[in-house]
Amino acid sequence: MKVVYKVTYPNGKIYVGMDLTDTVNYLGTMDSSLIAADFTREQRRDFTIRKEILWESETATDSEVRQREVELIREHRANDPAVGYNRWPKPR
């Protein structure tokens, strides 16, 4: 199964990513320094994130999954620094 997922952090910011193998514990390759800057040391002591599958396919090509990921990043505004941690694609 190939998936596009959304990770939501305690501050409400999101990251949208894809996983071509549907690995249950894969949370993406976001820039950790961006996330770290948003949380104090105390907030890091008890930190819960949520991962939701936004889209899945058993038949999509890798290229189709990448295309859907970009669409969902834009749809959810995950590439807007006020909303999310995606830095690509650049906001329009």
Care to describe what's here?
There is one protein chain. This protein has one domain (2-76). Helices cover 26% and strands 23% of the residues. It contains three helices and three strands. The chain has helices at residues 32-36, 41-44, 62-76, and strands at residues 2-8, 14-19, 50-57. A three-stranded antiparallel sheet has the order 2-1-3.
What is the domain total for the residues?
1
Structural class: alpha+beta
Q: Compute the gyration radius: what is it?
A: 13 Å
The coarse silhouette is globular
Number of strands: 3
Distance between the terminal alpha carbons, to the nearest Å?
30 Å
Mean pLDDT score: 96
Strand order of the largest sheet: 2-1-3
The level of helicity is 25-40%
Q: Give a quick account of the main beta sheet: strands, pairing sense, barrel closure.
A: 3 strands, antiparallel
- Element string (H = helix, E = strand): EEHHEH
Q: Which percent range describes the beta-strand content?
A: 15-25%
Please report the number of helical segments: 3
Considering the chains and any ligands shown, give keywords for the structure:
three-stranded antiparallel β-sheet; 23% strand; 3 strands
